[in-house]
């Protein structure tokens, strides 16, 4: 992992950040393992507020602070939106973390630790969807999709690409609010899309064809492909493009979306890896066939999200205006789906008989 030059994390930019110690929090339990280290549920000792503490692991870094963590902090510091996870502050611990015998743990012998403090979220979308017997209702799916698109539109307007949209990075609280999280791969972009960006981003199943074909000049459309995959997954009950490796991922995409040519995707044949992955035969697009059980408006929107040519893929703002969100059954109020989603796990036929349409 790349490291920052000394002084690159300028905490002066964030007055009061880093001034408090982690001892202002009582760690309650470990709730996850992040890109840089453990994530804990913790309680602010004065206010009793429950937060998530994300530890930034320093033991792999020969010097300095992980540059990806700096990026995540800088990006989250400028984003303030109800559908984007809130980074509340940074806290530090002066010495190494120790076990019960007082021995330094994590191989972190000499350095102190740094923690990001986030608002606490109760679930993630993948965890909720994977519960046995769980089927989301159409109003719930519309509600989650609307929040996802609203948060993403906000990021894109602020020239931030998330670059790792997937169910486990969409956190949901017990009130049904959805927030984009894990900005460890995010970066700022300029609107001309001419930057030379890292190609290997986005978890394979949610990675768009332009990245699989080697593009390093890309924009917000990469996140919209991932949104399309999540949308279809919510309606379908399982991931739609579960490739085992990059060539297989591209094959699965072509089998569903057809093989691209210069007519439907001008410039595709000039993509860096087009010749390596060129499909051996022409395949027809069959999104409508594969998902004919989806309602018409859902299918129309999905078609526009899973468009091969990124320049023709629907942007988040336009997706929010799609008929799908404005026709019955309308998206439910976040608070309402808590009733079904979180507390009651009903047999799936109960839901389909009573709610699904
Ligand atoms: P991340 O590195 O952000 O993907 O975090 C790893 C895991 O920690 C996630 O998959 C969640 O299970 C958990 N986690 C991260 N942030 C939070 C949060 N704000 N509230 C609750 N759990 C979280």
From TrEMBL:
<dbReference type="GO" id="GO:0005634">
    <property type="term" value="C:nucleus"/>
</dbReference>
<keyword id="KW-0723">Serine/threonine-protein kinase</keyword>
<dbReference type="InterPro" id="IPR017441">
    <property type="entry name" value="Protein_kinase_ATP_BS"/>
</dbReference>
<comment type="similarity">
    <text>Belongs to the protein kinase superfamily. CMGC Ser/Thr protein kinase family. CDC2/CDKX subfamily.</text>
</comment>
<dbReference type="GO" id="GO:0005524">
    <property type="term" value="F:ATP binding"/>
</dbReference>
<keyword id="KW-0808">Transferase</keyword>
<dbReference type="Pfam" id="PF00069">
    <property type="entry name" value="Pkinase"/>
</dbReference>
<dbReference type="InterPro" id="IPR000719">
    <property type="entry name" value="Prot_kinase_dom"/>
</dbReference>
<feature type="domain" description="Protein kinase">
    <location>
        <begin position="25"/>
        <end position="325"/>
    </location>
</feature>
<dbReference type="InterPro" id="IPR050108">
    <property type="entry name" value="CDK"/>
</dbReference>
<keyword id="KW-0067">ATP-binding</keyword>
<protein>
    <recommendedName>
        <fullName>Protein kinase domain-containing protein</fullName>
    </recommendedName>
</protein>
<dbReference type="GO" id="GO:0032968">
    <property type="term" value="P:positive regulation of transcription elongation by RNA polymerase II"/>
</dbReference>
<dbReference type="InterPro" id="IPR011009">
    <property type="entry name" value="Kinase-like_dom_sf"/>
</dbReference>
<dbReference type="GO" id="GO:0004693">
    <property type="term" value="F:cyclin-dependent protein serine/threonine kinase activity"/>
</dbReference>
<dbReference type="InterPro" id="IPR008271">
    <property type="entry name" value="Ser/Thr_kinase_AS"/>
</dbReference>
<keyword id="KW-0597">Phosphoprotein</keyword>
<dbReference type="GO" id="GO:0008353">
    <property type="term" value="F:RNA polymerase II CTD heptapeptide repeat kinase activity"/>
</dbReference>
<keyword id="KW-0547">Nucleotide-binding</keyword>
<dbReference type="GO" id="GO:0000307">
    <property type="term" value="C:cyclin-dependent protein kinase holoenzyme complex"/>
</dbReference>
<feature type="binding site">
    <location>
        <position position="54"/>
    </location>
    <ligand>
        <name>ATP</name>
    </ligand>
</feature>
<keyword id="KW-0418">Kinase</keyword>
<dbReference type="GO" id="GO:0009615">
    <property type="term" value="P:response to virus"/>
</dbReference>
């Amino acid at each position: 992992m790349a490291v920052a030059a000394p002084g690159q994390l300028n905490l002066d930019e964030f007055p009061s950040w880093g001034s408090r110690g982690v001892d202002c929090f009582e760690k309650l339990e470990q709730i996850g393992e992040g890109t840089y280290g453990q994530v804990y549920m913790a309680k602010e000792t004065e206010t009793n507020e429950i937060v998530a503490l994300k530890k930034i692991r320093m033991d792999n870094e020969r010097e300095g602070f992980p540059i990806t963590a700096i990026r995540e902090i800088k990006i989250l510091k400028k984003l303030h939106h109800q559908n984007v996870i809130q980074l509340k502050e940074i806290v530090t611990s002066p010495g190494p973390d120790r076990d019960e015998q007082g021995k330094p743990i994590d191989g972190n012998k000499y350095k102190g630790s740094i923690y990001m403090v986030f608002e606490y979220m109760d679930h993630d979308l993948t965890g909720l969807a994977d519960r046995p017997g769980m089927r989301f209702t159409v109003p719930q799916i519309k509600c989650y999709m609307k929040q996802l698109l609203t948060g993403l539109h906000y990021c894109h307007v602020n020239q931030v690409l998330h670059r790792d949209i997937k169910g486990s990075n969409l956190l949901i609280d017990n009130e049904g609010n959805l927030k984009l999280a894990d900005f460890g791969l995010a970066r700022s972009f300029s609107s001309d899309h001419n930057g030379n960006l890292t190609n290997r981003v986005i978890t394979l199943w949610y990675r768009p064809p332009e990245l699989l074909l080697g593009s390093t000049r890309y924009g917000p459309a990469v996140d919209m492909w991932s949104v399309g995959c999540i949308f279809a997954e919510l309606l379908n009950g399982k991931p739609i493009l579960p490739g085992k490796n990059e060539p297989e991922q591209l094959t699965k995409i072509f089998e569903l979306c057809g093989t691209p040519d210069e007519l439907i995707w001008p410039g595709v044949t000039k993509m860096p890896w087009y010749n390596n992955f060129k499909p051996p035969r022409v395949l027809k697009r069959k999104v409508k066939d594969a998902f004919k059980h989806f309602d018409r408006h859902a299918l129309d929107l999905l078609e526009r999200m899973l468009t091969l040519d990124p320049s023709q893929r629907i942007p988040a703002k336009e997706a929010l205006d799609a008929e799908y969100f404005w026709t019955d059954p309308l998206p439910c109020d976040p608070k309402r789906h808590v009733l079904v989603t979180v507390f009651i796990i009903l047999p799936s036929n109960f839901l389909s008989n009573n709610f699904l349409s």
